[in-house]
Structure formats: C-alpha cells, structure tokens
Design goal:
17% strand; alpha/beta; 4-stranded antiparallel β-sheet; Alkaline Phosphatase, subunit A; 16 helices
Amino acid sequence: MKRSRLLVFGFDAGHPPWMEQWALEGTLPFVRQIMERGWWARTRGTELISEHGLWTVLLSGESRGRLGYYYFRQLRPGSYDLVEVTGLDVKATFVWQRLSAGRKVAVVDVPEVLPSPGVAGVQVANWAPHRGWKSRHPAHQLVSEPEGLARELARRFGPRDEIIERVGTNAAQERHMLRRMLRRIQRKGDLCEGLLSRENYDLVVVVFTEPHTAGHVFWKYREGTADGELATAIKQIYKAVDAELGRLLGVVGSDVNVVVLSSVGLEDHFPTGGLVKSLCCRLGYQVPAAQDSWSWHPMAMVRRVVPERWRCWASRILPRDTRERLLADQFRRETDWTRTKAFALPGFFNGMIRVNLRGREPQGIVEPGCEYAELLDRLEADFRALVDPVEGEPVVGAVYRPGKLFGEDPPQTWPDLWIVWRPSTRFWDRVVHPQMDLCQARPEFFRDTDHSQEGWIAMAGPDVQERGARTACDVLAVAPTLLKMLGEPIPAGLATPLNEI
C-alpha cells in the first residue's frame, strides 16, 4: 500500500463564502492553488450542531454522540451541577494516533486538542489559541510532546501571545488587536517553519486560529460597513494566514497531498439565552424556588440588594472561573426541582432544554415514554411559535432532538432539545408567544456573531483525482479520508471515506 505524506492546514472558523470568494479573486493565492489543482466543498452534517469540539470530530471521525461534548459548560449527568468541559474531558482517537509504527507527525495548535502521548514526532497545543477569556485551566495552557519542546519554542520564537476575543472594545483597541494578530500569524509561521525544517514528517497538521478571533471582533467592520483598515481587517487576517501556509508548503515540498480545512462559518447573531429561560419560566415548565428556601444564601442576598447594572459591572471584573462557580450555584439553587418539568441550561446563542426526567435527574418528575415525548412536542411547538414583533417572522430556525440525532434517546449527557435561532442583525429584547410576550435583558457577553452550520474543505496533490467544486460532504468523512490519503487502514466504526482520491 502506498504511504503518502499529507499536510492538513486549518483556518479555524474560516467563513466558507469568503474562503471561496477571496481565493478565486486572488486574495488567497495558496488556497486558490489548492482549488485549481484539486477540488473543494462545503462540509455539513448533524455534527455541526455546535461549534464546540468540532475539530475533535473532524480529526478523529468520532461522533458527538459518543464523545458527549456540546458546549464549554455542561450539566453533569445525574446532578444539577454545571461543570466546565474541555479537551481534557474528551476521549477521542485522532488520525495521528492511528498511523503505523515508524511514521512521524507534527501537530500544532489544533483547537481543544491536547498532545497525544506515545506518538512519534512533535505536538504543540495552545501556542496561539482562540480564547474568549483568560483561563487557568490546564487544558488551556501551552503544552507539548515531548514535554521540553514548549520551552525550546519559547526560547527560539518568544512566549505565546494570548489574544483574547473581547466584547465592547473600541476602534483604537481593535486596530491594536489587528496588528497583534498579524504579528502573531507571522511568528506562528516562523515557529512551524522551524519545526518542519527538522525532518520529513508523514503527517503535518497546523491550525491558525486568528480567522476565528478576527471573524467575531471585526464582523461589524466587514467590507462595505466601515472605512479604513478595519474595513478589511478580516481579509487581512485571511491573507496573512494564506501567505504562511504557502511558505510552509515550500518548506515541506510540493510532492505531498494537501488538505485545507475550515471548522465552521459565521453569521449574524446576538445572545438569546434570556429568551430560553424566559419561555421555560413564564410558561410554567421551570418553577422558581420559594424565596425563603434560599433567601439567606449570600448570593441571593446580593441579588436582592444590589441593582442589576451594578451586578453586571462587578461580574466583568471577577475571574472567569469565579463567575462560573457563582453561575453554577445560582442555577442549582434558584429552581424548585420537585415541581419543574423542563429547564433551560445557561448558554449564549443556542437554546438548550433539559427535561427533569425521572430516573435520570436527581429529582426528576417527568415519566419516561409517552409523558416525556409529549412534553418535548409541547416545548418544540412553543419555541416554534415565537415571533419577532418588528419583522413579524419566526425567530426559531430549527429544533433538534439530540437523543434521536445521536442514537441515545433520551440522552444521558446532551440536552433533550437544541434550539437554533434564526440569524438576526438585531438583539431580540422581546419576542411574542401566542400567550404572552417574552423578554430578555442585554447580557454581559454581548456579541453580534455566532457560527453557521457549515465548514469548508479543499484538497489537492498527487493522489487527488477529482477537480472543481463538488457537493457538500459530511464532516464525519474527513478523518477516514485523511487516513485513506495516508495509506492507512480505516477502522471499523468510522464513516466511509470520500472517493475522490
């Protein structure tokens, strides 16, 4: 069996329409070269229901149904506790772990993926990550395999530059952030060039996360909406990444197979978490705890005495892990679980509803079977009935049942309903239900973008036969296709690889 070499280059959250448009117009010459020499397509599938953990799905081929990872904050099964979930908690087997003995890999900055011990070659995680907040969690620190590699890279290329995606920044701060990201992209290219110059690796996986951060921060300045350098900020970031990928291909050589991957795209969106909770509480699915049952708890006393705008200000200056602990405590205490049939899990952009199911939740009251199914039907109908009073259009685009999507019904880890809201250029502070108006206050985390349910892939090389655009492919087919390109066997249980190679 032929054992080819393979380069996998990632644009984290590279927006598919921009990838195609800017490549074809010449702004991204490296990506255009791959498209002209091979084929490209959008990636879709149920796995794109969430952006979190998507790189794990792409590069392992394992479904979210088995991985059980859907959000950075999840409900611990068998409890009402909210816990942080990271790459440390996801047990997947990646493409580079399946290579035959003697083959070597270089893996750099795959989001939410930590080095795999026992794999020949070099692995680096979190050198230039996409982060929405500073974190002291071990899964978010710079780590490498072998262990001393991180220290060596710091000596040669300087310490990592952790650029945090912040909300509420002004134009001057964002211009500074743009310049930092452009410098970081070049430094990342220097680092990767240094690693790839050491020897001929059989598999190289390098992901640039700056398109993800730039997409969110500079969305409001995208071309046609602003003047000056911020109007082209996102294009500048994509162009800089494209240039570094071209440089790295020159280091490795042109006689290799190349895959360019984007995890997911972007779309207009504003937070909707307040509407989810409002519906559950106002329609009686989620019952608040009696005031005297937790009124002497310190946080309950603070919430009664301190005005909301002051609480929001204070929360912004607290460390993220402290805020998460306070949120988890409030979530656990503010609901009367003995009378609640379904409850909202705290989130920003997607609605997550969990049924208080007997035998699954500690104080579950809804019976499995018919009662459970009928409750989900009513909840889905209530969400689909919500209308934007300004435009007169439904605000919910889709309602999924993860238990049915992933073959575990009812699900043990996932929410029972997953609400996808229609993209919007406005914050919905009020929506209309046939029975009442539902309102939400502007949250502390107030961003104008979230992610679409499609990514992007292009590939070219000596083993790639097809040419041109093709129909969308399932994200679960990516990992087995990479194994096929490497000449490795496809393990049972993975999807069928694409037949274009």
